[in-house]
Amino acid sequence: MAPVPAEYREVVPKQNTFSSWRGRLAQRAVHGAWAWVQRTGSVTAERPGRLRFGSLGTGTRLAFPLGTVFGEPWIHLGAHCIVGEQVTLTAGLMPDLDLGPDPILRIGDGVVLGRGSHVIADTTVTIGSDCYFGPYVYVTSTNHSYDDPHQPIGKQWPRMEPVEIGSGCWIGTGAVILPGARIGRNVVVAAGAVVRGEVPDHAVVAGAPAKVVRRWTPADGWQPPLRTPAPVPIPDGVTPEQLVALSDLDDATVARLAELDEDESENENGAEGQVEEGAGTRARSLGPAAPGGGVPATRLAALDSDG
Question: Given the DSSP bridges, would you call strands 75-77 and 112-113 parallel, antiparallel or unpaired?
Fold first, then answer.
């Protein structure tokens, strides 16, 4: 007889072999042991293990399990970097080569390399500070050649060109950065893009091959214009307790606080005829970032006394 499908929200009895207390205990033990292995196996400046990087900055951590890592004397990582699991970092075509006195792979401060990414530096690769890489990004200074149509491509000597990625860039999931790429500062590379050649500062590139789809300049701003307004940060001085209290506000309380702020604004600026926008407008400008529809920063303190 075919099994009867469960109704919506009906509790389905557990039917796996780990439902016993022994199974649950074993599962917790395995998870706890793996967490310990991950903590112990991670690489830091204080605990580099077998790896001898050219430099490894304070607060930088390579998550365990590591990907392929070799040529580490020619790899320099800055401070406060996060290198995800299974990230490959290599300098030189193969291990145990003497690559000279200068670093081959330079990674600046505050860089995040997402899980499964590869940075292959057979010649120099430079990644500026505060760059964020999504998972499975591939950066390489080496590509195959195809000069001889009669020889297997994998047996032909590869081509190498330096790669530079400016500071403050955002590299999307699965992007590929090819040899010779020179990416400017504060550039967004869309997920899956394939980048070669030069990319100017403050640009957004997408596609294969990647093309500039949006750019900011001092003269023209963003062209084409952004489709969504910029997020509004939490005002200075707002406490975590006040943010928690926002979630309990109803519409009547929000309206009352907005009126109080509007009255104060009118009193301060009425003599000059320059009345500021009401707090309701500022509350709306916070949009979804503030629970309860947003509350003016000047009235948040009233939450503590008004309840």
Answer: unpaired
In the structure, what pLDDT confidence band is assigned to residue 13 with cuts at 50, 70 and 90? Answer: low
Is 118 marked active-site?
no
Which residues lie below 8 Å from residue 77, measured CB to CB, with a gap of 6+?
53, 55, 56, 57, 60, 83, 107, 111
Residue 199: what pLDDT? Answer: 98
* Token couple for 254: 């929000």
80, 144, 150, 202: which one is catalytic?
144
More confident residue, 202 or 289: 202
Give the DSSP letter of residue 42. -
CB neighbour class for 220 (10 Å; exposed up to 12, middle 13-18, buried from 19)? exposed
The type of residue at 285 is S
What digits encode the pLDDT tens for the residues 203-253?
999 999 999 999 999 999 999 998 888 888 888 888 888 888 877 788 888
Specify whether the CB–CB gap between 152 and 170 falls below 8 A: no
Q: What is the pLDDT of residue 269?
A: 62
Residue with tokens 């955002």: 170
Please indicate whether residue 34 or residue 14 has the higher confidence score (pLDDT): 34
Share of the chain above pLDDT 90, in %: 62
Cα-to-chain-centroid distance, residue 140: 20
Residue 13 DSSP SS3: coil
**Whether 60 contacts 79, CB under 8 Å:** yes
CA angle 173, 174, 180 (to 5 degrees): 115
Distances (CA, A) of 212 to 31, 139, 176, 182, 205: 45, 19, 15, 14, 4
Q: In this structure, are strands 211-217 and 221-223 parallel, antiparallel, or unpaired?
A: antiparallel
Residue with tokens 């990416």, as numbered in its chain: 183
- Angle of helix 251-269 relative to helix 279-286, nearest 10 degrees, comes to 130
pLDDT in tens, 176-205: 999 999 999 999 999 999 999 999 999 999
